[in-house]
Specification:
The protein is an alpha/beta fold. The chain has a single domain, classed as Alpha-Beta Barrel (TIM Barrel). The protein is 34% helix and 22% strand. The protein has an eight-stranded parallel β-barrel, surrounded by four helices. Strands 9-10 form a two-stranded antiparallel sheet. Helix 4 links the parallel strand 5 and strand 6. Helix 1 packs parallel to helix 7 and helix 6 packs parallel to helix 7. The longest helix is centred in the middle third of the chain and has 16 residues. The radius of gyration is 16 Å and the shape is globular.
Length: 213
């Protein structure tokens, strides 16, 4: 079954929306420059409100792994999603989801090398997240990732597809790329950090339906 993560949640109301829609994971963005930023202290009641089946994921950009781990323990996160973390960083006891912005074939080779580097330290990531490349931006841009490059791409661990996904195109993306998971933020929003309940439900429904064809 496809794994679905709704990212950039900032309010208790949107936590309920994501939970009711049947997503597998929910992302809290701890990057201060993001329009979806949530202060770790403000995130505590959001995480406390999660049902047991909905996995909390912390999103960290250029943050030391030790800082991400500290916040992970503080909030009871299950997964740390990181940008620009070295392969020798040890996220234990959390699952690690390193994220990469892809623009060409060299980007894919960099992902393979990263996974191999992690493996050499005995700590393969749980999966890798592939996002679109936008100069100066890290995620949440709404730009579609280069699906054509990702057809048949095997990084050596499960692939999570992000970048410009919406309720209207997620089924096509799944059929083409065949990822193990999908991740969406701006594609189900009415404004940055504010989820649209109808779009969230449609995204989850369409993603699930695509894997049953």
């Amino acid at each position: 079954m496809i794994q679905i993560k709704i990212c950039g949640v900032t309010t208790p109301e949107d936590v309920d929306v994501v939970a009711d829609a049947g997503a597998n994971a929910i992302g809290f963005n701890f990057h201060p420059k993001s329009p979806r930023y949530v202060d770790p202290k403000a995130a505590e009641p959001l995480v406390r409100a999660l049902p047991s089946f909905l996995a909390p994921v912390g999103v960290f950009v250029e943050a030391p792994m030790r800082q991400a781990i500290a916040i992970g323990f503080q909030l009871g996160l299950r997964t740390l999603q990181t940008y620009t973390s070295p392969p020798d960083d040890d996220p234990f006891p959390f699952a690690h989801l390193p994220a990469f912005r892809v623009k060409d074939a060299a980007s894919l080779q960099a992902i393979r090398q990263y996974v191999a580097g992690c493996a050499s330290f005995g700590r393969k990531p749980a999966a890798v997240l592939v996002d679109s490349f936008v100069p100066g931006e890290v995620g949440g841009t709404g730009k579609i990732a280069p699906w054509e490059l990702l057809v048949g791409f095997d990084p050596g661990v499960p692939l999570v597809l992000a970048g410009g996904l919406t309720p209207d195109n997620v089924a096509e993306a799944i059929r083409l790329v065949k990822p193990k998971g999908v991740d969406v933020a701006s594609g189900v929003e009415s404004a940055p950090g504010k989820k649209d309940p109808g779009k969230v439900r449609a995204f989850v429904k369409n993603a699930r339906a695509a894997t049953q064809l």
